[in-house]
Amino acid sequence: MNWKKIIGIIALIAVIALVFFKLKSNKETTESKVYQFDKEQPIAVSADTIRLQTIDDANAYTGTFEPNKETKISADIQGKINAVLVDVGSNVNKGQTLIQLDNSLLKLQLQTVEVQIEGFEDDVKRYTILTEADAVQGVQLEKAKLGLKAAKVQKATLLEQISKTNIKAPFNGVVTAKLNEEGGFAAPGIPLLQITDISTLRFTVNVPENDLVQFQNNKTYKISADVYPDISLSGKVTMSGSKANMGNSFPVQFQVTNTKNLTIKSGMFGKVNLSDIKQEQGILIPASAIMEENGKAKVYLIKNGKTVLQTIIISRNIGNKTLVSEGLNENDVIVTNGFINLFDGANITTK
To answer: What are the tens digits of pLDDT across the range 151-196?
Structure first.
């Protein structure tokens, strides 16, 4: 064999080996710089042991006040806004003019139609006399009468359009949003103002299925707002939910008359009190420890140094804690913080 060929083959093998070694070295360097999540590495979490606690608010359910009526007002016709007569916070009455649109062109059109009506009325009178004297054909009188009817319809249409240039309040309430200004342009479907009626409020709580029987339609219950705990309001049940939400609880809605000069505002929190229920003990956990998966409430239990994803049933929220009716037992240990990278079956270490 030619020595030059042998040396060439050896050199080629050496080059290939060098390239392979370099590529492997580069791969190892790159992998060392990229974060590799180790599922076996313990994850540091905060934990808490479940203890039965006395529930001070066992006879109360927390809910939210909402307006009885709320709507965004828009114009029925388009036009330039000449004046906005109210501002945010203004109390308004049903039928009160809130916004005035420019109607100068419509009024000119109305004047034109009124002139046409006068002409048709004169034609009707004249053709009536001439027809009775057989001086003209009756068809001319009929045309004049039809022209008069059409002009009157056009006048009624213009009057209706002019009336719609004064945008009025649909009900008593408070202006809670001002969405346009004088000089702006109004068109159907474009909101201009928002009116909220809080003289009557809706109060909604979520009730577990076992307690739903305690709320009867048209029955009155005591309700208080969190910011005004000394103000007692009467709420009549108007609706009991027929479909459960997260945690198998059902919405119950009350109608509350806001008798304290609109003291209670939309969005405030409150409680409905059931005085016939005694104080009880139960399992309270931080609301932040709960997560939702496929519409179900779940928490992470800690068993033998590993996490176990546990489905729970929520009774109700009390402040920043949640009362759990099923799924947890006394002395269970749950994860309360450190959920990043946490998964079912993860190794954990407590802080």
So the answer is: 999 999 999 999 999 999 999 988 989 998 899 999 998 999 999 9
| SS3 sequence of the chain | CCHHHHHHHHHHHHHHHHHHHHHHHHHHHHHHHCCCCCCCCCEEEEEEECCEEEECCCCEEEEEEEEEEEEEEECCCCEEEEEECCCCCCEECCCCEEEEECCHHHHHHHHHHHHHHHHHHHHHHHHHHHHHCCCCCHHHHHHHHHHHHHHHHHHHHHHHHHHCCEEECCCCEEEEEECCCCCCEECCCCEEEEEEEEEEEEEEEEEEHHHHHHCCCCCEEEEEECCEEEEEEEEEEEEECCCCCCCCEEEEEEEEECCCCCCCCCCCEEEEECCCCCCEEEEEEEHHHCEEECCEEEEEEEECCEEEEEEEEEEEEECCEEEEEECCCCCCEEEEECCCCCCCCCEEEEC
Question: pTM of the predicted model, to two decimals?
Answer: 0.55
Which fold, 43-57+280-350? 2.40.420
Question: Per CATH, the architecture of 60-68+198-273 is what?
Answer: Beta Barrel (2.40)
Domain boundaries, the chain: 43-57+280-350, 60-68+198-273, 70-191
